[in-house]
Automatic annotation (TrEMBL):
Bilayer topology annotation: Multi-pass membrane protein
Transmembrane segment boundaries: 25-45, 95-113, 125-145, 157-177, 198-220, 276-293
Keywords: Cell membrane, Membrane, Transmembrane, Transmembrane helix, Transport
Gene3D superfamilies hit by this protein: MetI-like (1.10.3720.10)
Domain ABC transmembrane type-1: 88-275
One GO process term, biological-process aspect: transmembrane transport
Full protein name: Carbohydrate ABC transporter permease
Length: 308
């Protein structure tokens, strides 16, 4: 509840003052949300602290939010680990190819579907053609058999092509396109522009918030996906990073790889520090990219979710 009063200066302006109950409610919300944020942040901070701690300190459970016996040996080992670096390259390759293909397909599908029925006669049919894939799925086994029959197993394309058309993102983008002023495209057509030129010169520049939001979805989806790598890759050497991390979390580190390390480095390593270092490095790229796209995120979600 807010109390409205005139300004004491006598200028006739209205001043809104929050009541005591309103202030109490806001304070309670801030406290609860702050506690929840800290609860979500604590495991990440502890993981980073463990990765910078000695193996003995991590194994004994003495590490909380600050490193104990600070060392970079875990990161030195990880950067020398050929399996880890191969997995990083597979994920980078997947990001570059997968995100590019997804963004291209989303734009090419959303643009015609954003037109009115008067301009695209069978628009409703095509919209339901794509929407049906959200309601029903072919299942894991038919998808695997399809990928096997097309010769994509154990290739990076097995991780890219099945998710090349994210229908949920297409719906957000076509609604974003529909919210753009129709007069802009009509003016472009009057000036002699065709559909391709109107798309790349008018729609794409005006849709930066929506495209940045969907790019973030695509980056996070490809980078964090691990299950398809384990299913579609026959060789662990072809695993993307998250699939590789999943395997090392479920089993011990390779002792033969540790045996080639220097003795002083081995003394400061443990299973916990190595896993924490690799998980931290795996999450680092998304943490670095997110701040640059975050300013577009809320605007893109809101505009793309409103349907006229």
């Amino acid at each position: 509840m807010r109390i409205t009063a005139f300004s004491e200066k006598g200028d006739g302006k209205l001043v809104e003052r929050a009541s005591w109950s309103r202030k109490s409610f806001l304070a309670f919300n801030y406290i609860v949300l702050s506690v929840m944020a800290l609860a979500c942040l604590f495991p990440i901070v502890q993981m980073v602290a463990v990765s910078f701690s000695s193996g003995a300190a991590a194994s004994s459970g003495r590490v909380t939010i600050f490193p104990i016996e600070f060392t970079l040996d875990a990161y030195r080992y990880v950067m020398r680990n050929d399996a880890f670096m191969r997995a990083v390259w597979v994920s980078v390759e997947r990001i570059m190819l997968g995100c590019t293909l997804q963004m291209l397909m989303m734009v090419l599908i959303a643009y015609p579907l954003s037109k009115d029925v008067s301009k695209f006669r069978y628009r409703t049919v095509y919209v339901w053609f794509f929407m049906i894939t959200i309601l029903f799925s072919g299942g894991l086994i038919p998808t695997y058999l399809t990928i096997k029959a097309t010769g994509l197993l154990n290739t990076v394309w097995a991780l890219i092509i099945p998710s090349a058309v994210p229908v949920f993102s297409v719906v957000l983008l076509l609604n974003f396109f529909r919210n753009l002023p129709k007069e802009l495209s009509e003016a472009a057509f009057i000036d002699g522009a065709g559909h391709w030129k109107t798309l790349w010169k008018v729609y794409i520049p005006l849709s930066t918030p929506g495209l940045a939001t969907l790019l973030l979805f695509s980056l996070v989806g490809h980078w964090n996906s691990w299950f398809d790598g384990i299913i579609y890759m026959n060789s662990p050497e072809r695993y993307p990073l998250q699939s590789y991390l999943q395997t090392i979390i479920l089993m011990k580190q390779d002792s033969s790889a540790l045996s080639v390390m220097d003795a002083n480095i081995l003394a400061n390593l443990s299973d916990r520090t190595l896993k924490s270092a690799q998980i931290g490095l795996g999450a680092l790229p998304i943490l670095l990219v997110y701040p640059f796209l975050q300013r577009f995120f809320m605007k893109g979600i809101v505009l793309g979710s409103v349907k006229e």
